[in-house]
Design brief:
Radius of gyration: 23 Å
CATH architecture of the largest domain: 3-Layer(aba) Sandwich
CATH topology of the largest domain: Rossmann fold
CATH superfamily of the largest domain: P-loop containing nucleotide triphosphate hydrolases
Number of domains: 2
Structural class: alpha/beta
Shape: globular
Number of helices: 11
Order of helices and strands: HEHEHEHHEHHHEHHH
């Protein structure tokens, strides 16, 4: 199968991680992502992040950790579901064009245009000719984006059948989680073998140099979140050397006129306080 292993044969848990290490790693990754987002906003860089994966695999949890701490006005999360009446009858990529990011913005898709070769293929929502040609159309779509300077990051969040069952039962058992379950979920579960084949075909036929796939094993939620955020940070930070944003001299002068503040005042104040504390000893 080329570079991609059969999904249900990949290693689902690398090593245990304790909560303290997880929180420390999460905080560092979120700071790194904030620095990248600030850089992209200032340089007008556009970013598209696509999340695919099984029900209960943890896509929403990963997205939640991804956007935490980011400047909200320039980050947009698009939850993709059944096409609206206005979207039906149009080319399936049309609705995704409507949500592409403006300069300096990130667009995060919770499910993507790959629905054409996944759910629409398996559930018969389109004909065989339509989903078979979609691989070419999708590759061309992503090539158009990257040729125009858009950074495209694609993650497939994978979960074992056993862990998916455990999480689904947990949702059924807790009233505040039941809204996450629908009859459609059970139809998808019953067709796991067909979906595995569709995912394998997707990986083989749409993993490109300009828009590669990244598979995140998610049986361990903490590991999956760290790995997913690390992949995104690595991809978006490729070729970028982050530096501190220089203070505009005109803004510095305005701050001095308004408050008598100069850059470095806090450091001087801290040093003076430390010296006073030392003298007291």
């Amino acid at each position: 199968m080329g570079k991609w292993p059969i999904l249900d044969e990949i290693e689902m848990i690398d090593r245990p991680i304790d909560e303290e290490d997880y929180e420390r790693g999460l905080k560092n990754l979120q700071k790194r992502l904030l620095d990248l987002k600030t850089h992209h906003r200032l340089t007008g860089t556009r970013v598209v992040i696509g999340m695919e994966g099984w029900d209960a695999a943890g896509k929403s949890g990963l997205i939640s950790r991804l956007v935490t701490g980011l400047e909200p006005k320039s980050v947009h999360v698009w939850r993709i579901g059944t096409p609206t009446p206005d979207e039906q009858g149009r080319h399936y990529l049309w609705r995704f064009w409507q949500h592409l990011p403006a300069p300096g913005n990130w667009a995060i898709f919770d499910r993507t245009w790959y629905g054409r070769v996944l759910v629409e293929r398996i559930e018969g929502f389109c004909g065989d000719d339509a989903w078979k040609r979609a691989y070419r159309e999708i590759n061309e779509f992503e090539r158009q984006l990257t040729d125009d300077g858009v950074h495209v990051v694609k993650l497939l969040v994978h979960i074992s059948a056993e862990e998916q069952e455990r999480r689904m039962i947990d949702r059924l058992s807790k009233p505040y989680k039941r809204f996450k379950i629908s009859l459609e979920d059970f139809r998808n579960i019953a067709k796991r073998k067909e979906y595995l084949q569709a995912y394998d075909d997707m990986l083989e036929r749409t993993d490109t140099d300009h828009a590669p796939w990244h598979v995140v094993a998610s049986d361990d939620k903490m590991q999956a979140r760290l790995k997913g955020l690390d992949i995104i940070a690595d991809e978006l930070g490729r070729g970028i050397k982050l530096t501190e944003h220089e203070l505009d001299p005109a803004i510095a002068e305005a701050a001095y006129e308004a408050w008598g503040w100069r850059l470095g005042d806090e450091k001087k104040k801290k040093n003076n306080n430390n010296k006073k504390d030392s003298d007291k000893k």
